[in-house]
Amino acid sequence: METRSNHVLVGAVVLILLAVLALFIVWLARVNSSADKEYDILFKQAVDGIAKGSPVAFSGVPSGQVKEIALFRPDPEFVRVRITVNQDVPILQGTTASIQGIGFTGVSQISLDGAVKDAPPIACPSENASASCPFGVPLIPTRTGGLGAILSSAPQLLERLTTLTERLTGLLSDRNQNSIAAILENTGRLTDALADRGPEIAATLAETRIAIQRAGVAAEQIGQLAGTTNQVLANDVQPAMANLNKAIASAQKSAESLDGAITDARPGLQAFSKQTIPEVGQLVQDLRQMTEALSAVAERVNRGGAGSLVGSQKLPDYEPAN
């Protein structure tokens, strides 16, 4: 009986110690969990490489781990990731989250960065908390990390690579290859022809250099001639222009004097046109009539002599017919 009672006492003591140990572990877990802070992150991209227990780093310093991964039910385009971080990690306004790969193993981590000094911490507001914190914990905004940028731009990159490949394929078709070969062959022939014409090209370049030098000398001479011409214009043409201006002024004065004389003679001219011209016309008509009469007298003198002016014209003798 004593042996059985000893075994029961030992078993009871062991059970009590195990219960106390379990309670201590639970208390320690609660204490540790209460020391951590929880945040939600909504990623609008694939979260490949992230799993429950994946590390969370703040500016490269390990600061927590991923606690939960689930789809965001109001909008399945997003993935909700809940993280726990240490109490002393400064999750302030301006802090953002991104996914970054760790080496080439395919494993990724949540990277936090961008805290602003003296900024307030990210927390759920007292008003309208359901909109800002739909799951009861603050939200950390996201930014596109290196892996996210690569994954988001991968379709465009593949499309551009496909387009480039198609264009290269069209460029390197058989027809274009023949054309390129013909161009290269013609280029080779042109190179050989230029090599053969090397001395002639050198002579042409030398002549061109001499022609350029002569052109420079001619340009200098033209400049000197222009200077001489300017000097001649300054010395000779300017006095001539002054004399010409004087002559023009004198001619203008003469024209003004003539205009005044014409103005003064205008009444006499009007009287001459109204009185003298008709009288001259009558005189011309009388002279014409006198000329006709003199012509008739001269004709009579020519026919009958001077006696025809005194008597009448003698009739011819009439002889009767037998």
From TrEMBL:
> According to the lineage, what is the superkingdom?
Bacteria
Supply the name of the protein.
Answer: Phospholipid/cholesterol/gamma-HCH transport system substrate-binding protein
Species of origin reads Sphingomonas japonica
Annotated InterPro entries: Mce/MlaD
Residues in domain Mce/MlaD?
38-113
Keywords (alphabetical) are: Membrane, Transmembrane, Transmembrane helix
Keyword check for Signal, yes or no. Answer: no
The organism's taxonomic lineage, starting at the top: Bacteria, Pseudomonadati, Pseudomonadota, Alphaproteobacteria, Sphingomonadales
Q: Which PANTHER family match?
A: BLL5892 PROTEIN, MCE_MLAD DOMAIN-CONTAINING PROTEIN
Q: Where are the transmembrane segments?
A: 7-29
